[in-house]
Task: structure prediction
Amino acid sequence: MRRIFLLILTLGLIAALDVAAITAEEIIANVENNEINEEERIEGSMTISDRFGSRVKTFISYAAGADKMLLEFTNPEERGQKILRLEDEIYLYFPEAEEVIHLQGSALKESVMGSDFSYEDMTGEGDLLDQYQVTLLGEENIDGRKHYHLELKAKKRGLAYPKQEAWIDAEYWVMTRANAYSLSGRLLKEMELGDIRKVAGKYIPHYIIMRDAMKKNSSTEMRIEEIDLQADLPRNAFSLEELTW
Result:
Protein backbone atom coordinates (compact mmCIF):
# COMPACT_ATOMS: atom_id res chain seq x y z
CA MET A 1 0.00 0.00 0.00
CA ARG A 2 2.84 2.34 0.89
CA ARG A 3 4.51 1.65 -2.47
CA ILE A 4 1.29 2.49 -4.31
CA PHE A 5 0.99 5.74 -2.34
CA LEU A 6 4.59 6.67 -3.19
CA LEU A 7 4.00 5.88 -6.85
CA ILE A 8 0.92 8.12 -6.97
CA LEU A 9 2.81 10.88 -5.17
CA THR A 10 5.74 10.57 -7.59
CA LEU A 11 3.47 10.72 -10.64
CA GLY A 12 1.79 13.78 -9.18
CA LEU A 13 5.13 15.51 -8.68
CA ILE A 14 6.21 14.64 -12.23
CA ALA A 15 2.98 16.11 -13.59
CA ALA A 16 3.48 19.26 -11.52
CA LEU A 17 7.06 19.60 -12.75
CA ASP A 18 5.90 19.13 -16.34
CA VAL A 19 3.45 22.03 -16.01
CA ALA A 20 6.11 24.18 -14.33
CA ALA A 21 8.71 23.33 -16.99
CA ILE A 22 7.32 26.06 -19.24
CA THR A 23 5.99 29.48 -18.32
CA ALA A 24 2.85 31.17 -19.59
CA GLU A 25 5.01 33.85 -21.21
CA GLU A 26 7.02 31.22 -23.10
CA ILE A 27 3.81 29.60 -24.35
CA ILE A 28 2.52 32.91 -25.72
CA ALA A 29 5.90 33.61 -27.30
CA ASN A 30 5.81 30.22 -29.04
CA VAL A 31 2.27 30.88 -30.30
CA GLU A 32 3.20 34.28 -31.70
CA ASN A 33 6.36 32.89 -33.28
CA ASN A 34 4.20 30.32 -35.08
CA GLU A 35 1.46 32.69 -36.24
CA ILE A 36 3.33 35.92 -37.00
CA ASN A 37 5.19 36.10 -40.31
CA GLU A 38 7.35 38.68 -42.01
CA GLU A 39 4.97 38.71 -44.97
CA GLU A 40 1.85 36.67 -45.72
CA ARG A 41 -1.03 36.59 -48.16
CA ILE A 42 -4.33 34.80 -47.51
CA GLU A 43 -7.46 34.21 -49.57
CA GLY A 44 -10.49 33.14 -47.62
CA SER A 45 -14.21 33.24 -47.01
CA MET A 46 -16.46 34.23 -44.14
CA THR A 47 -19.92 32.71 -43.68
CA ILE A 48 -22.21 34.73 -41.41
CA SER A 49 -25.21 32.89 -39.94
CA ASP A 50 -27.92 34.59 -37.88
CA ARG A 51 -31.70 35.02 -37.73
CA PHE A 52 -31.63 36.55 -41.20
CA GLY A 53 -30.07 33.42 -42.73
CA SER A 54 -26.56 32.84 -44.08
CA ARG A 55 -24.41 34.97 -46.37
CA VAL A 56 -20.86 34.54 -47.63
CA LYS A 57 -18.13 37.17 -47.91
CA THR A 58 -14.78 36.55 -49.60
CA PHE A 59 -11.55 38.39 -48.95
CA ILE A 60 -7.82 38.70 -49.51
CA SER A 61 -5.61 39.72 -46.62
CA TYR A 62 -1.99 40.77 -46.37
CA ALA A 63 0.12 41.00 -43.21
CA ALA A 64 3.65 41.96 -42.26
CA GLY A 65 4.75 41.19 -38.73
CA ALA A 66 2.40 41.79 -35.81
CA ASP A 67 1.32 45.36 -36.50
CA LYS A 68 0.54 45.67 -40.22
CA MET A 69 -2.51 44.10 -41.83
CA LEU A 70 -4.67 44.87 -44.87
CA LEU A 71 -7.94 43.08 -45.59
CA GLU A 72 -9.85 43.61 -48.83
CA PHE A 73 -13.30 42.16 -49.55
CA THR A 74 -13.72 40.56 -52.97
CA ASN A 75 -17.36 39.41 -53.04
CA PRO A 76 -19.59 41.47 -55.41
CA GLU A 77 -21.59 43.26 -52.69
CA GLU A 78 -18.57 44.65 -50.82
CA ARG A 79 -15.87 44.43 -53.49
CA GLY A 80 -13.10 46.93 -52.83
CA GLN A 81 -13.95 47.67 -49.21
CA LYS A 82 -10.75 47.57 -47.16
CA ILE A 83 -9.63 47.44 -43.54
CA LEU A 84 -6.09 48.62 -42.77
CA ARG A 85 -4.30 48.21 -39.45
CA LEU A 86 -1.11 50.13 -38.72
CA GLU A 87 0.06 49.33 -35.19
CA ASP A 88 -2.86 50.47 -32.97
CA GLU A 89 -4.69 52.42 -35.67
CA ILE A 90 -7.47 50.98 -37.88
CA TYR A 91 -8.79 52.60 -41.08
CA LEU A 92 -11.71 51.71 -43.36
CA TYR A 93 -12.05 52.50 -47.04
CA PHE A 94 -15.38 52.50 -48.90
CA PRO A 95 -14.94 52.71 -52.69
CA GLU A 96 -18.47 53.97 -53.36
CA ALA A 97 -17.86 57.05 -51.23
CA GLU A 98 -14.12 57.20 -51.97
CA GLU A 99 -13.71 57.87 -48.27
CA VAL A 100 -11.22 56.72 -45.63
CA ILE A 101 -12.52 56.47 -42.05
CA HIS A 102 -10.26 56.33 -39.01
CA LEU A 103 -11.88 54.03 -36.42
CA GLN A 104 -11.52 55.04 -32.78
CA GLY A 105 -12.92 54.15 -29.38
CA SER A 106 -16.08 52.05 -29.30
CA ALA A 107 -16.17 51.90 -33.12
CA LEU A 108 -13.31 49.36 -32.98
CA LYS A 109 -15.66 46.93 -31.27
CA GLU A 110 -18.35 47.16 -33.95
CA SER A 111 -19.25 44.16 -36.08
CA VAL A 112 -17.59 43.66 -39.47
CA MET A 113 -20.31 43.14 -42.11
CA GLY A 114 -22.77 42.00 -39.43
CA SER A 115 -20.47 39.12 -38.48
CA ASP A 116 -19.45 37.93 -35.00
CA PHE A 117 -15.98 39.43 -35.58
CA SER A 118 -15.22 43.00 -34.56
CA TYR A 119 -12.71 45.16 -36.40
CA GLU A 120 -10.18 44.41 -33.67
CA ASP A 121 -10.86 40.66 -33.97
CA MET A 122 -10.30 40.73 -37.72
CA THR A 123 -7.03 42.63 -37.65
CA GLY A 124 -5.28 41.19 -34.60
CA GLU A 125 -4.37 42.38 -31.12
CA GLY A 126 -0.69 43.22 -31.42
CA ASP A 127 1.79 41.94 -28.83
CA LEU A 128 -0.24 40.00 -26.23
CA LEU A 129 2.49 40.11 -23.58
CA ASP A 130 2.53 43.91 -23.74
CA GLN A 131 -1.22 44.00 -23.16
CA TYR A 132 -1.99 41.06 -20.88
CA GLN A 133 -0.73 39.44 -17.70
CA VAL A 134 -0.74 35.72 -18.50
CA THR A 135 -1.10 32.78 -16.10
CA LEU A 136 -0.74 29.07 -16.79
CA LEU A 137 -3.75 27.38 -15.18
CA GLY A 138 -2.73 23.83 -16.08
CA GLU A 139 -2.92 21.20 -18.78
CA GLU A 140 -5.95 19.63 -20.44
CA ASN A 141 -6.56 16.90 -22.99
CA ILE A 142 -8.67 18.11 -25.90
CA ASP A 143 -9.51 15.67 -28.70
CA GLY A 144 -6.62 13.45 -27.60
CA ARG A 145 -4.04 16.25 -27.69
CA LYS A 146 -2.22 17.96 -24.83
CA HIS A 147 -3.17 21.62 -24.37
CA TYR A 148 -2.02 24.40 -22.05
CA HIS A 149 -4.86 26.34 -20.41
CA LEU A 150 -4.02 30.03 -20.01
CA GLU A 151 -5.70 33.01 -18.40
CA LEU A 152 -5.01 36.50 -19.76
CA LYS A 153 -5.87 39.63 -17.77
CA ALA A 154 -5.53 43.09 -19.27
CA LYS A 155 -2.69 45.25 -17.98
CA LYS A 156 -4.42 48.47 -19.03
CA ARG A 157 -7.86 49.90 -19.70
CA GLY A 158 -9.37 50.17 -23.14
CA LEU A 159 -8.68 46.66 -24.44
CA ALA A 160 -11.57 44.96 -26.20
CA TYR A 161 -11.49 42.03 -23.76
CA PRO A 162 -10.37 42.67 -20.15
CA LYS A 163 -10.06 38.93 -19.58
CA GLN A 164 -9.51 35.94 -21.85
CA GLU A 165 -9.01 32.20 -21.57
CA ALA A 166 -7.02 30.31 -24.19
CA TRP A 167 -6.23 26.67 -24.87
CA ILE A 168 -2.92 26.12 -26.71
CA ASP A 169 -1.93 22.91 -28.50
CA ALA A 170 1.33 21.90 -26.79
CA GLU A 171 2.91 20.53 -29.99
CA TYR A 172 1.62 22.82 -32.73
CA TRP A 173 1.66 26.05 -30.65
CA VAL A 174 -1.78 26.89 -32.02
CA MET A 175 -4.66 28.35 -30.04
CA THR A 176 -7.56 25.94 -30.61
CA ARG A 177 -10.10 27.53 -28.25
CA ALA A 178 -10.58 30.91 -26.63
CA ASN A 179 -13.17 32.68 -24.52
CA ALA A 180 -13.38 36.45 -24.03
CA TYR A 181 -14.96 38.11 -21.01
CA SER A 182 -16.03 41.55 -19.85
CA LEU A 183 -14.55 43.24 -16.77
CA SER A 184 -17.43 41.81 -14.70
CA GLY A 185 -16.68 38.28 -15.95
CA ARG A 186 -19.56 38.00 -18.41
CA LEU A 187 -18.83 35.80 -21.42
CA LEU A 188 -18.61 37.93 -24.57
CA LYS A 189 -17.28 35.63 -27.28
CA GLU A 190 -16.25 32.05 -27.92
CA MET A 191 -13.82 31.01 -30.64
CA GLU A 192 -12.73 27.60 -31.93
CA LEU A 193 -9.98 26.89 -34.46
CA GLY A 194 -9.37 23.69 -36.41
CA ASP A 195 -8.27 22.05 -39.66
CA ILE A 196 -4.64 22.67 -38.67
CA ARG A 197 -2.20 22.20 -41.55
CA LYS A 198 1.57 22.53 -41.78
CA VAL A 199 2.55 25.35 -44.13
CA ALA A 200 6.18 26.36 -44.70
CA GLY A 201 7.19 24.78 -41.40
CA LYS A 202 4.39 26.37 -39.37
CA TYR A 203 1.02 25.06 -38.17
CA ILE A 204 -1.89 27.12 -39.45
CA PRO A 205 -5.58 26.71 -38.56
CA HIS A 206 -7.64 26.85 -41.76
CA TYR A 207 -10.99 27.01 -40.00
CA ILE A 208 -12.23 29.44 -37.34
CA ILE A 209 -15.70 29.80 -35.85
CA MET A 210 -16.62 32.79 -33.71
CA ARG A 211 -19.77 33.07 -31.60
CA ASP A 212 -20.87 36.36 -30.07
CA ALA A 213 -22.54 35.56 -26.73
CA MET A 214 -24.44 38.84 -26.95
CA LYS A 215 -26.22 37.66 -30.11
CA LYS A 216 -28.81 34.88 -30.23
CA ASN A 217 -28.33 32.09 -32.77
CA SER A 218 -25.38 33.83 -34.39
CA SER A 219 -22.04 32.46 -35.59
CA THR A 220 -19.39 33.27 -38.18
CA GLU A 221 -17.21 30.68 -39.87
CA MET A 222 -13.98 31.74 -41.50
CA ARG A 223 -12.03 29.47 -43.85
CA ILE A 224 -8.62 29.89 -45.45
CA GLU A 225 -8.66 28.80 -49.08
CA GLU A 226 -5.08 29.74 -49.98
CA ILE A 227 -2.14 30.92 -47.90
CA ASP A 228 1.38 32.07 -48.76
CA LEU A 229 3.71 32.66 -45.82
CA GLN A 230 6.54 33.85 -48.04
CA ALA A 231 4.61 36.37 -50.10
CA ASP A 232 6.55 39.19 -51.74
CA LEU A 233 4.31 42.15 -50.91
CA PRO A 234 4.71 45.64 -52.37
CA ARG A 235 6.68 47.94 -50.07
CA ASN A 236 3.78 50.42 -49.84
CA ALA A 237 1.02 47.82 -49.40
CA PHE A 238 0.18 49.12 -45.93
CA SER A 239 0.11 52.85 -46.60
CA LEU A 240 -2.90 55.16 -46.38
CA GLU A 241 -1.98 56.52 -49.81
CA GLU A 242 -2.45 53.08 -51.40
CA LEU A 243 -5.64 52.32 -49.46
CA THR A 244 -7.82 54.13 -52.01
CA TRP A 245 -6.49 52.14 -54.99
The radius of gyration is 20 Å.
